[in-house]
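Sequence in, structure out. Go.
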Amino acid sequence: MKTPKKCPNCQGKLTTKQVKKILKGGGNTAIVQVEAEVCLHCGERLYNPNVVRQFAQIRTKLKNQETKDFELIGQSFSVRAPLL
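Output:
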């Protein structure tokens, strides 16, 4: 699949960048750094289809608690109190 030369949302210029993507599954969260085409106007990200398939695999592993190959970097918390 060829990467478009312009953003499909706003027709802005695309550039290749390293980006961080947050993936969630089964109450777990993973952060991955991948290459994406990013629109310089609206910020839309376009990912390679192989990368999108890997996102799905990671989400499935997170959901199934199959995280032995992942690096633990901390804990996440939900804040329920209203913020002022």
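Check: Residues 14-63 form one domain. The radius of gyration is 16 Å.
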